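User: Can you write out an input/output pair for a complex, sequences first and structure second?

Assistant: Here is one pair. Inputs:
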Amino acid sequence: MKRKEYILNGIKLIFLSIVFVLYIFPFFIVLINSFKERKDILTNPIMIPDKLNLSNYIDAYTKMDYLHAFANSLIITVFSVVLITLFSSMTAYIFVRRKWKFNQFMFFFMVASMIIPFQGIMIPLVKIYGSIGMMNNKWSLIYMYVGFGASLAVFMYHGFIKSIPVELEEAATIDGCSQLQTFFKIVFPLLKPTTVTIAILDILWIWNDFLLPYLVLISPDQRTLPLSVFYFYGTYTIEYGPAMAALMIATIPVIIVYLIMQKQIIKGVLQGSIK
Amino acid sequence: MDLEKNFLSKLKTYLIFAGPVTIAFFTVIILPFIYGIYLTFTDWNGISATHTFIGFNNYLQMFKDKVFWTSFLLTLKYVFFSVIFINAIACFLAYLLTSGIKGQNFFRAGFFTPNLVGGILLGFIWQVVFSNILVYIGQRFNLPIFSASWLSDPNKAFWALVIVTVWQYSGYMMVIYISGFMNIPKDLLEAASIDGANSYYRLKNIILPLMVPSFTISVFLTLQRGFMVYDINLSLTNGGPYKSTELISMHVYNTAFLSQQYGIGQAEAFFLFAVVATVTLLQVYFSKKMEVES
């Protein structure tokens, strides 16, 4: 019995390793070719380079305006996520603690609206915000992310706040805290696990999002990282080396964060999907 | 604890706490959604300041448009195969990675990696794989299946899209299935073994019924994302060769923003919304019915 188990485990391990290599292979291929010159990529794309030539990276870095695009992505992601978590937690709090008919209606309405896909509203969205001159501006984009992200966040906070006993807040009110003080001093710190989950899900979504920024941000100096790679790749496809380097420098920041926060990210994804 | 006695103080509390979300929600989701329905009845071309009301013409045009139906059927085919492969592979990987194997955390982290990177980048990365690497391997080792780029053959380009999608999402769904497997009570399985249930009966009568909630979520997510896919479609095949892999989202985008037929584009988008809403609601309804309490 022991021996059979041993062999079975060996087979499983070999199988998983093969699948693992298949999963990582595309990243690996791009990585090794990002150090090569064009002619080496064409003659043998699976050969491992003998020296680390960084000229492709310098090329991609300058032509993509990498730092600028990175900063744009960072500003948009950070502000959107902070505003979504802040405003959604406040909204969910009032929805749970005040059982007004209107609150119940709004909660239901927001949850039901989650079935509307982005493609269902992108055309009128562009028309409306184009006609009032709110396009090509990262602050409009952040505003839109708050609108798109609020429903799920309110829904997740709602579930969590329901489980918090109300007595603490009553005590705070008796001690003279205003409603906002009660919320920020007592309730918001308790919501931390949910806030982390929502932040992880929203960071993955907003940092990598393409279609919405593609529609909203028009001028080159506004581009986010995915947009910048997209335009760079479209213009320089023939220059394989720099194109691969561009893919790598856009991927690496996320991979680094993942290596540091891997446990929280997997946990966050899990909790987000169960809701 | 109702602290607000009259309507005005209630309104004040509501606006302080829920004001920003309410405004953003209505102006970003609800207003465009309603305005979008209105747009489907007009002939707006994207530029002119005026547009006229043309009734159901856009919908009629959409139903008569062969290209639209080709794209829609292709999307159905794409969704069908990607949902099946993603969930089968994800579930199998999750099963292996919850059997207490060495290095399971390492494997889990590895399989999840594609989900960290945006679809645009993933599509470009695989473009390199299909057009350069596999072609090179095909010619070098004389494998006819890879000797020409998959992306230049309509049928193979479709499967390339499916492969990349499966590669992208199976790690995400695997995480959901892993939590499903870990939530199956161990004592229940042990009790069944003692009562003489072999592994087939345990699988059929205990494990699978308790995994239904995980299937519900994963199938829902993969259905929704499958119908909506755009990024990978754009960066991997850009609808080519000869528009043969233009999925429905890309078709909507092109009709509206490239052909400047905003009314028809929005009618198609609305049709897509109705299809996705119906399919996912039916799916969730029927899978919920199959769920049991553990």
